[in-house]
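Help wanted!
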Amino acid sequence: MNSRRRILEVMRTVLAIAIALGLALVAVFFVSKNPGEALSYFLIGPVNSVRHVGNVIELMIPLVFTGLSVAVMFSAKQFNLGSEGGFFIGAITASAIAIKLGLPPIFHPIVAIGAGGLAGMIFCGIPGILKVKWGSSELVSSLMFNYIALFFGLWLINYFLRDVNAGAMVSYSFSKSALLPKLFAGTRVSVGFIAAVAFVVLSVLLMFRTRWGYQIRVTGVNGNFARYSGIGTGRVVIYSQLIGGLLAGIGGSIETLGMYTRFSWQSLPGYGMDGVIVAILARNNPLYVPVAAFFLAYLRIGADLMSRYSDVPNELVALIQGVMIILIAASSFLSKYRHRLVYEEATRLEAIPGGGLK
Amino acid sequence: MNEFFKAVINAEFGYSVLRVTTPILFATLGALISDKAGVMNIALEGIMLVSALAGVVFSAWTGSAGMGLLAAIAAGALVGLALAYCALNLKTDIILSGVAINLMASGGTVFLLYLVAGDKGISSSLHSKILPKLDIPGLSAIPGLGTIFSGQNVLTYVAFLSVIAIAIFLYRTPMGLRIRAVGENPNAADSVGISVKRTRYLAIVLSGVLAGMGGAYMSMGYVSWFSKNMTAGRGFIALAAEAMGGATPLGSVLTSLLFGFFDALSNTLQLLKIPSEFVNMIPYAATVVGLVTYTIRKTSRERALLARGVSAEAAKGKGA
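Answered by r_m:
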């Protein structure tokens, strides 16, 4: 892709976001009695105090992990929506280890996060294996497994780890040694932020600098081509789902140990589905995942502040997300310009003696 | 164990199987009709949710359950139209379009519910209506059978009659033939002058209408209110049911009944001393087991055909 086409892709994304936000603003004007105030909370609220900026970064961390997870799985053209369950199961596993095992400080969270990652990996691998072996739709099976993960996880918490003296449906407290230390005073941002940055770098290296990453991308773009050029696409599909699950599980573990002192979710937290939005915004490119995650986190925190201090419910974000996904994934959105660029490029190459493409 | 059989083997349980099968059956028929046109409609879940809300809101505003039903059907058709526009005009991947619509439906219904009912969880402040139950004269007098089949919600009968209507539509009308042709081979259909786009539009909108009726049943029959994410994955279970039913009307009814059975089982077993988490898991676990069993059988049949020398292309059916 040459630079002009890359610019066009960026333009497409920006325009899609602008249209989605524009629609949301119209909705606010219809719904709110004081739209100016509501909008200022929505758009400026997330940066008007250190605590709010902290909230954005806190929310960004799980979104980076599930965004990476979905990006890797979707890169192999597998619509595995198991990041949601993988994140949840990872969080449960990490909680169990944080409660039950007694380990020295630095090792404890590492073991817990590693185990959580492994749990997520197995979880997302199953739909991949079922798809490769028998052609069972990974989309349907992963959605069903998400519900199974939810109920299985709740059973583990309620029957083995529940603190009956806590007054609510929560687990025992995690050992102090398992908690992730905070990174910035005055916020809840933990060292998980550094881990998120590290995993972005690792994912970029994996996808663009290793044979595995190359095979995943080729399989995703054209499965037949990959097969004819000798890539075992079945194996590629499975390990891409395993890696995606690993990332989701690690994300769930870090979220739990970085943000909470007990396990308290009674339903799926939704970060896996948010990961789909992040991955689509980032065009499945791990390098853009942090940008997309930041943007989504900003929208969410803005919407939360707006619904807290004005009369517009925060579910407004759902409208923005849906329109963004559709427009960004729409191949005919601004396609005229793309065709023209491709055509110009082709005629320019033809004009070079010998064709220019070697 | 004894308690288990007592809970399952009786006419009331049969009644509740039909009751919980109804929304799954509507959605499965919706999945069937779009699949026949070669479109995987994963937005069924979101369509049902939107229609469920539309039914409650409009029946409360107009004071008429019938108007609520009409609004739910119209809402289903509109969301179907939106899906078709995204997939066929904007050329967004159909699965991503479906994901987007499901996300919008899940948040958007809560948004609207808050504006209309002032609550983010449930519509209890609205005085919405419910669709009537029908006592079938004669049938209701027969013990056992009467308990199972009579006194169901009017939409339950509509659902089972729709199966016949859709079978006739798909296999006995020119439009149905066109839909199937477009699904089997769009290029061939196009070459004999069938508009692939228009046919798919029709199939997706019909799919939305069916899911819309399923949504109306959820909030105006199954229960008498709308609550957040009340469809609880039924739209996705329907996709599995349709695939397992071999993409036929009869197969769709049988698999819907199977999943309805497990759904009813999970409702009934709430009363026994089994951890509720496992009971809640039953419908989803049954769906995965069903889907995988079906695909294992299908691939082994294909392999057997291959071994007998039938070409790979001929043996390979459509993916599940």
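OP: Thanks! One thing I noticed: Residues 57-310 of chain A form one domain.
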